[in-house]
Amino acid sequence: MDTISTSSKDERIEIRISAADKQVFLKAQKMSGDKSFSSFLVRIVKEKATEIIAKNEVIIASEQDREKFFEAVFSSQKPNKRLIEAAKRYKSKIALL
Predict the structure, then answer these.
(1) DSSP 8-state assignment for residue 33
(2) How far apart are the first and last CA of the chain?
(3) Three-state SS string across the chain, please?
């Protein structure tokens, strides 16, 4: 995964939240040890965003693998020489068990 990192903080995000949500966030920030509310929010949102990205990248990779598998199994292509040799080696090893 590519990480986006910049040394300058030029961007702003403005959000509106309920008073109750803000109190929960402030309480969590104090318990977390983060020095500022902004640093707490950025850290938490970045952690969650990284988790979401990682999870979705695994899903996408799994989907691509699934497509390749089914394409290989159900395509009309005949196995190439390397695949035939690998199958023979596998069968000879299994026969020894």
Answers:
(1) T
(2) 42
(3) CCCCCCCCCCCCCCCCCCHHHHHHHHHHHHHHCCCCHHHHHHHHHHHHHHHHHHHHHHHHHHHHHHHHHHHHHHCCCCCCHHHHHHHHHHHHHHHHC
The confidence score (pLDDT) of residue 6 equals: 56
Confidence band for 1, pLDDT divided at 50, 70 and 90: very low
Residue type, 18: S
**Phi, psi (deg, nearest 5) at residue 10:** -95, -20
Query: What whole-number distance in Å separates Cα of residue 62 and Cα of residue 59?
Result: 5
* Distance between CA atoms of residues 60 and 48, nearest Å: 18
The reported pTM is 0.55
**How far is Cα 79 from Cα 88, in angstroms, rounded to an integer?**
12
